[in-house]
Amino acid sequence: MSDQAVLPEVTAFLAARDELDTFTRAHPDIIREYRRRAEDLDQKRQDADHVCRAKGISCGPWRIKNRATRYRADRIREVLGPKAFKAIGGKTETVAVHSIAKEHVEDAIKTGKISRAILKDIRTITPNYKSPKPGRLP
Questions:
Q1: Model-level pTM?
Q2: Cα gap 138→129, rounded to integer Å
Q3: Measured between alpha carbons, how far is 6 from 15 in angstroms, rounded to an integer?
Q4: Which band of pLDDT confidence, cut at 50, 70 and 90, is reported for residue 2?
Q5: Which residues face 59 on adjacent strands?
Q6: 33 by DSSP, 3-state: which?
C-alpha cells in the first residue's frame, strides 16, 4: 500500500502541511517574531533545566518526582577487594547473550535445519521508514 490517496491520515497530513505553508508565506513577519520568541523561550528552558538538574533541586515547574539511589558494585568490589565484597553480599554475575548472524539463520531455513513453521516466533521484520519530521516552527 504505497498510494497516499488510499490513507486518509496521509491525505489529512498533506493538507494540514499545505495549509501551514500557505499561512507561513502569508504572514512572514508574524512567523519570524514567533520563531524568535519560541527560540528564546526554549533556550531559557534549557538553561533552567540544566541548573535545576545540576543543583538537584525543585524550582517552579521543575519538580523532582523521586530520587533513585544506585551503588556502583564494580567500584565497591575494586575498593574492598573480591573477598570483602562477597562477604557483604556482593556477587559477580555472568549474563548469557545469544547471537547468530542473519546469514546463518537464513541458510539454516533454506536447508530445513530451522522449520519455516517457527518463523513467526523467531523472526521480526521491522520496516525502516523515511517520514516527515515532527512539526517544527516555520
A1: 0.55
A2: 23
A3: 14
A4: low
A5: 62
A6: helix
